[in-house]
UniProtKB/TrEMBL annotation, chains A, B, C, D:
The keyword tRNA processing appears for this protein: no
Organism: Plantactinospora alkalitolerans
Any GO molecular function: transaminase activity
Keywords: Aminotransferase, Pyridoxal phosphate, Transferase
Family, as annotated: Belongs to the class-III pyridoxal-phosphate-dependent aminotransferase family.
Protein's name in the database: Aspartate aminotransferase family protein
Transferase keyword on record: yes
Length: 465, 465, 465, 465
């Protein structure tokens, strides 16, 4: 059966019923998704940046078949082979020479990984607060949402009359530092002149201020992304090292959320490895299993692992360490290693960058690009002369409509790409994000970038009109 | 490979490193789990009550193979066949004649299902509080933990020196009503004389009091389990109907957590169906996919679905509606229907009950039993004459040691069963729980109950000594 | 000037502008309040139970004159004579032989005293939660309101359309135990048959359950009143001793709020002294200065005082230890001692009780009375035969209207008393409260009780009609 | 009696017992405080900036005598003359031509005024959050402390071993914007070059960011001081107007805390009046009664007053509108008007400023000054050449010791002043604050400034040594 099942009307989505997509995905292979009507789409955004080794990589598929024939499910207290092996691969094969990781725990999503990291940090430091950043995204469950700075992604509802209803939570948001986004610096600064006399970035100084204001003795950890997925931007170069120095100096843990930027996406196993430091706690998800099975992970330093290893922990998660999920993790990591996909991502990243440079140069509507390895964002602009954006509020509000005209620039771009069978996404109102499978071929890459190029032509034409 | 991988030392578990199990699960089939040393264990507790249609049911296995060969992963905005079908099966095939469900949303665990239910309730009612019960368990993420009444399962750490360190949360627990547990009524009452002149149970009246005290205009929902999994008890018969009446009268939603008690476990599709009422929001997990793939679900009434169907919801979950997970759900539900496993659970429940009746009668150390269908708890007691328990604090604290002697009665019972290759669990200090796969054969059932019988002999002997 | 100042229209009250009282208080003396129109009202309720030694007791007045001529205000770090003396009087003269108090701190209201007690308890135990009771009142500021069980007094607004709007607080209510109110036991029990085999009251067992459910390692203190002022009831006799035993056993502090019941009101200096135990932290207000100057106090045990006495405390309150307030406290305490008003309150209490006994016996509309010393509540009832109340929800909701007829029984009683120039109050919908100045004469007492007697006649007549 | 009462040992202070002041204040008059040993101190700091019309102004003293002889206390529902009159004076005499105030409510402290303002804002907007600033101080009760940005003043304890213990609160701090302090801009900017192209200050832009990040639909109000009392600095000129524009544009209320800066202190009745705008809610305390009686007030706009005037408000405060407190308010306001003390403060401010200019110029250890009217702060510096501060962390931590040497520069300055019988205070580690009574004579002013001048000589000498 390929068609639409009447059960679809029962599915509770996140857009109004009248706006739901009416296609059906029936298959996927490599960089392509197949639809019920026979169409094939180039998955140029990798399904929320998830598809690491490509759709249905034969070795991953084979591993899943083997796993299905072996052990369906045992509770987390049972050791099993893939759980052991996944832990070893992560700790021993992906951390370069560094031996900072002492413990790994697997859960079932990125949000759960964030929740776990927060619990671990709070227990280890015996302090109640986590400090986060504006424009951050760490998930949707209560804890993860409380460190999520993107207001539009905190589970609120926009009602028919246009009014918004935030979740009437009994939990105030955690303290939040300014987002380290140079293309529209919230501190009104310009990189690199934002550095103070000691070379410290203004946003890092601001983070120190926020931690001190919350009270150092109440703050368990500071949480970051490096490529901000939902915010669609990369932190400035000095940021990560300076955050490491800051958190160490203040005696606060550093949680690095690598749900998106991990597992080779940025051209290193983990994004933090570009910066010659390591976090105290790290999370992974999405690419960890190429999303073949829901899974997330939380990795902790040896100090933290030792601390927990001596206690009884009143914590239980049914699907933690699920055999099928771990089979997918093991297969994904082994493929990454065998095919050296991390280096490949770095190399392809160079190709993308030079192509984006050219594309941006040729389009008035493209203000710039940002990214690393195989995750990139392109910023759209209304008026190249004045730098005026389409949606002024930018990353603060959904869904990216120019309020005066109702025109949605990202909508035009995504639509034009889709007409060319290229699937792209946009998180922030003025930005489109590219994050193809790491095994995308050079040819497929060109198809995707050509589509983007053509789509930007259309936006330029509209502007000129 | 069957042995222990050195990666195991990196796995972060919940018991001290020195206490970790040193076996390896290598396979599972039907009601049995296979270990690396060749041993086979009867899975008499179904891995946290998860294994619905049995380990690796051939049809479920086949469905997973098919799914692996089809569509690995697409984001939630893509419809696909199994998602549609799973929604239809749940709404149209499992709800008897009732058409109360208007929306279904799939996430990746029971905790996520709880989180989603809480968010939905708060947004729909535009109120910040959820009221829960003592001895409840609804998961470990920040929101779910805040409605979890079992203190020992709120992610706290028991340190080497015996002291406990709760998660230094910035979120007070939600208001909590007394647990509806008749075997040790927290209100000091005896069922059924606890009913007031209108027939209302004391625990239901107490729940009204707690909701009113929290402020009806602040309470979005009351959340229940029916079989309290981690508490290991069944609510009294009148409870569910009276809770429905109460919540309706006060204008508060009722969330029914069927993570454990759903999908046939109690001899009906859903435990609430024994009581001729339906909730406003229901969650499912565990048995929903026979735990073959991590998945949870949240079902909502037509009113709620309509409300959400008209708005934009700032909510996103990567693995929501994951194709592989949904394939497992569809296969599980279809097997349940084809093999009529719901009725089978009801029938087998009768067998278990009469056998438990006899076992309890013959053992001084067994105080009673409680349950329905294929989920049962047996209460252990130190002194049948006085009714004195082993662990006085009972469900409030973890490891179930008699504090004076260090003796752990459930430890003895589980150990004796394990010596007989029967795997049982205990959540509450004085209780062991039985929840085998729904397809367990009559013969296997006898093996399990015989082991329990023999184990209780040992406990009686120890008491006599 | 005696009349109404046009400035009155700017005063922000708590009832709708259309319902504000349009009289002017111009003076007060002894047990009487004088109005601008020459009328004199017997202050039979003592202005929220505040007027200890009587309005404008000559010695108190003289002490205030002296204080005004001496030292207007110095900050709290300055010692001054009345602050020293007040501390000594409280610790050495009002605590019988017991030397439990090690520290006293003065603030400016009952709410501030509660806030201080909560902060002290949390810091001393290093734990975040305070457990309270339903139907409690401890003040209106954010912390005090969070332990206030009376929903109608948590600063919410009842809008014109009858709907209620709770303060959209970001703080869930603290865990709350059932109210220890025997006249309508929330546990459906009847005193004294509510005691378990060890003699423990059901409400005390329920309190243990609530503390355990919140997690003993998270609970800093349990807070009580003894005479519940806003709830208008006295705790059962065994309650206080059992709460002391319970909190000690669990290692949790006990905070006793004596804002109302302190300074002789119940016939002992402090209400806890009837029970042969003492709290860890005690608050006082209202009667402490006979309300001549705003003041509250927090008294702590020697252990707690020693702990704080060794540290630097980042706490500052401008008016803490205000010279004028402390002059009023010293004068009030000295008058209490010189005139032996504590014993007088005890003696007069006997008179009131026997008179109330008779009044209740003679009125079908009077269901009973409760109290001690000079604070009493009389419960009104709609139907003596069936025990049916006027306002079913009783203490849960505010204005005390019978919802079907709009009739307000307490309104009738208070109004009839007022016609007789006797001022009475009602907090709970079916209850009127008596709490005259402690120096009220026997004659004045008769006037007040006669008025009540006559008012109840009117209510009986109305019922008969 | 003039000496030390043994009761002093029971007083619970905020510094360790071994560090308590061992003097006794026995009287006060005009600008002077008298001690038991006969010494007279010039109250050059006005007791936490409280002493408006001077200590024991004869008219205020007379008014208190009259009040004591009239009406001791009636509950808030009773109108009385001084309450009416105080409301009228505030609304009609202190607000220039503007008629923005529609309601006034009196409570008993600055903290209570903050709490009330927060409750009013939350109810009116029906939103749960208040946004505040770092280095703010708004009081110590739970709500007020949650908007207090000065970590050292959030009621935490510094233990003997030097470690700090924050109040284990269950309430995360409210979202906090950077402090608008130009002398050490937290954003690393320099006024006025911190303005963006539209002239908006960087700290105002940062405030917009914090409000947006918290979610505009969750924020009820933004709270400010204008002279930050505990932070000891004045906001930059454009700040107030831009905050007004910002809050109006976002649809958020603006609460102006005038506990310190109100009642003429800055040379206008209220500090906001320097800026040609008005807040939605304003608080007052301290100077409102010259601190002769504990009192605070909350003033609200006509829109808010109308909204509340139509509802029943479940709010009660015993000492709200206390007759003696209101007598002090009326007398203070009348004296202010009669003696034109507001203009006098403005004029004297000019004198102070020119003298401070000179003093700072002549002292290497003085980095600068800031203030308006009769409230000023002087910043101390370790090294004028490099601008190096004494205490690097500055306003973040108590008690201002240079951590390496243990030297406390403010301690030296205050001590030297005290040797000269001039009482000064310091809140922030590197700053001393001047805030004498508004009626201080020119001569007394010189005495105070001379003392400061001489004290700074000593600090310069020490630096030179
Ligand atoms: C950085 C980051 N963290 C956490 C999450 C949450 O992951 P999930 O959607 O699996 O719950 C996401 C999801 O997009 C993410 O991008
Ligand atoms: C009733 C109930 N709800 C929720 C959960 C949480 O599910 P999970 O462990 O999948 O997060 C459980 C898990 O045991 C449960 O028993
Ligand atoms: C028992 C109790 N505690 C605290 C308070 C609060 O006191 P205040 O109104 O002075 O803030 C009251 C006031 O009625 C009270 O009755
Ligand atoms: C600006 C400000 N607000 C509020 C307060 C709190 O006032 P109180 O100490 O009277 O509670 C203060 C006290 O110093 C203050 O300076």
């Amino acid at each position: 059966m390929t068609g639409r099942d009447p059960g679809r009307r029962y599915l509770m989505g996140t857009s109004p019923r009248t706006h739901r997509l009416d296609v059906t995905a029936t298959g996927a292979e490599g960089s392509w998704i197949e639809l019920a009507d026979g169409r094939r789409l180039l998955d140029f955004h990798g399904q929320h940046m998830c598809i690491g080794v490509g759709h249905r990589h034969p070795k991953l598929t084979a591993a899943l078949h083997r796993a299905v024939d072996r052990l369906d499910y045992v509770a987390d207290f049972f050791p099993h082979q893939d759980k052991d092996r996944a832990a070893r691969l992560l700790v021993e094969e992906t951390m370069d020479e560094s031996a900072w990781v002492g413990g790994v725990r697997f859960v079932s999503s990125g949000s759960e990984a964030t929740e776990l990291a927060m619990i671990v940090a709070k227990l280890y430091k015996n302090r109640p607060l986590i400090v986060t950043r504006d424009l951050a995204y760490h998930g949707w469950t209560a804890g993860a949402a409380a460190v999520t700075g993107i207001t539009a992604l905190r589970n609120g509802l926009t009602l028919e009359d246009g009014s918004s209803r935030p979740v009437p939570t009994s939990h105030p948001p955690y303290p939040s530092a300014p987002a380290p986004i140079c293309s529209s610096c919230p501190l009104g600064q310009t990189y690199p002149s934002c550095k103070d006399s000691t070379g410290t970035l203004a946003c890092v100084n601001a983070t120190e201020r926020v931690i001190r204001s919350a009270g150092v003795d109440r703050v368990a950890a500071f949480i970051t992304e490096i490529w901000h997925g939902a915010g669609a931007f990369l932190v400035p170069d000095e940021y990560v090292g300076q955050i490491r120095e800051l958190t160490r100096r203040l005696g606060v843990l550093w949680i690095d959320d690598e749900a998106i930027s991990g597992v080779g996406r940025t051209g290193r196993w983990w994004a933090f490895q570009h910066y010659d430091v390591h976090p105290d706690i790290m999370t992974a998800a999405k690419g960890l299993s190429s999303s073949a099975v829901p899974v997330g992970a939380c990795l902790v330093s040896t100090e933290i692992a030792d601390f927990f290893g001596r206690g009884w922990w009143g914590h239980s998660s049914t699907f933690a360490g699920h055999p099928l999920a771990l089979a997918a993790v093991v297969a994904t990591l082994e493929i990454m290693i065998e095919e050296d996909l991390v280096s490949r991502a770095a190399d392809l990243g160079g190709v993308v960058e030079s192509r984006l440079k050219d594309i941006v140069a040729r389009h008035g509507c493209a203000a710039g690009y940002s990214g690393r390895g195989l995750v990139w964002g392109v910023e759209l602009i209304r008026d190249p002369a004045t730098g005026q954006r389409w949606v002024e509020a930018d990353r603060w509000r959904n869904p990216g409509l120019d309020p005066t005209t109702g025109f949605q620039p990202t909508g035009l771009v995504l639509g034009e790409c889709l007409r060319r069978d290229v699937l792209l996404f946009s998180y922030a109102p003025n930005t489109v994000t590219i994050a193809p499978p790491l095994r995308i071929t050079a040819e497929e890459m060109e198809i995707g970038l050509d589509a983007l190029d053509a789509a930007l032509d259309r936006l330029d034409e509209r502007n000129a009109a």
